[in-house]
Amino acid sequence: MIDKLIEKIKETDNPTVVGLDPRLEQIPEFIKTEAFEAYGKTPKAVAEAFFRFNKEIIDKIYDLIPAVKPQIAMYEQLGLDGIDCYIKTIEYAKSKDLIIIGDIKRGDIASTAKAYSDGHIGRVLVSENEFEIFKQDFITINPYMGYDSIEPYIDDCEKYDKGLFVLVKTSNPNSAEIQDLISDGKPIYEHVGQLVSKWGTNLIGANGFSKIGAVVGATHKEEARKLRELMPNTFFLVPGYGTQGGTAEDVKPCFNKGGLGAIVNSSRGITAAFLSEKYKHFSEKEFAEASRQAVADMKEDLNKTLKD
Amino acid sequence: MIDKLIEKIKETDNPTVVGLDPRLEQIPEFIKTEAFEAYGKTPKAVAEAFFRFNKEIIDKIYDLIPAVKPQIAMYEQLGLDGIDCYIKTIEYAKSKDLIIIGDIKRGDIASTAKAYSDGHIGRVLVSENEFEIFKQDFITINPYMGYDSIEPYIDDCEKYDKGLFVLVKTSNPNSAEIQDLISDGKPIYEHVGQLVSKWGTNLIGANGFSKIGAVVGATHKEEARKLRELMPNTFFLVPGYGTQGGTAEDVKPCFNKGGLGAIVNSSRGITAAFLSEKYKHFSEKEFAEASRQAVADMKEDLNKTLKD
Lengths: 308, 308
What we know:
The structure is a homodimer. By secondary structure, the first copy, chain A, is α/β, with parallel strands linked by helices. Chain A is built from 13 helices and twelve strands.
């Protein structure tokens, strides 16, 4: 799947993944109104509004991007209706040949990790029947518990050609609190980076990158440069561009000299473009067109800097 | 809620939480057969079997214990039917006045953490309507991303009288890989312990313990002793007793001199007792009676050592 991701990045000439993290306050009024009329002011109405919103955006941008990254928290908070919407969003995006990076950040010990892995990227066995439940291509994972909390996912990555992005250095302001503590002369995130690199050694694909990738925030330019050097065969998922303050210059060190090696996420910057000053010439009804324009602008911004 | 938990521990004289982590291979054959007959060999059948299994165990043990800890991974892997079973299990256990520790180990940045918190321990707002979705009393949380990934939960703990258990030192074999790295003369888990203690400072209840607790594995006796000293106002959730090898002697350092300060988890050791050599005089139909006996034996084992 890492090779398919890289091929799709080359094909679209766009190392961008669009985060599908819907928030009720960023859904156009007419969609909310119709959902509330049909289902009342309920979690079901919100889930229906989220799905319609996601679907219209996917319809308008799928040809420009290699992948989408739904953030499960936004759906999970709505309970059953939300999980239903999460799965439907994944299925719809896959029907448009988009690669799915499920932003689930799970982390638990061995047998429990196996249950998460079975459900999210593997297969659930019921007697002799096999079921694919969440159908993601990649998922994000938290490494704090160590290798036995990662191993079951690695097995499924191998067996079903899936991939992981393991948190190494995150983009949020307090990421330094634990990740930047210095041990043996280097920060914890470098130790974690080396572990992630080691865990992925046997899963390197035709393009030179492993199925086991890393999350490296766009808000830490110097750290990214160092990690890129330390982990030449590890693909990076890069959050923090746009809304969180990361620029094309900031994400550049995440890429190698050939312009490969990373995929940059933008969520609200794309999906809520219609609410921003820059795209206010799009009406609310044209929210998905605004997203398409925002994708095109992000692609241009990244490529201008990366190919410089 | 931390005060209610402590009161219930005193009332039952039992610092035990029973983990509800059902696995298909540990469900009695007659329950599986009936579920497969009703729903085929499907995730729905598994979820139905899990719920019946949980319900019968809860019915037989609720008067002996203060709390249960469902592990969401076991349910989530089944998709919608599993999440439905997870919520029904929580509601049923609450109807028996049990405290719910949701073992979800979520961790994400600020606005995403807020979505998890709203859904799991807070309220989801849809216009002027408020919804309680997962209805847990406590949840487990991963600290790798730092304070801004914890803050939204802390706000909800205050507002809705809920609680957290933040991973500090976990019970699994590879927990040392990151958690034991030495920084500034002490292991990472001690740094995390100090952070957890600081985060909980303003939420200390009548019994002297904060709503912000810590997960400290039963498999690390010396580490637990040190953490108990460092974090006198932090309640510990202690996994690893029984199946993972932890003994009553191992968990003793998690408690203070008054015999308070921790709650010890056992999952398979209780719920799959009917499959073990020790309880084989119970028939498969008596699986819940076997669980009741296992709870009574664990209580005796803990109290003998703790009150020694």
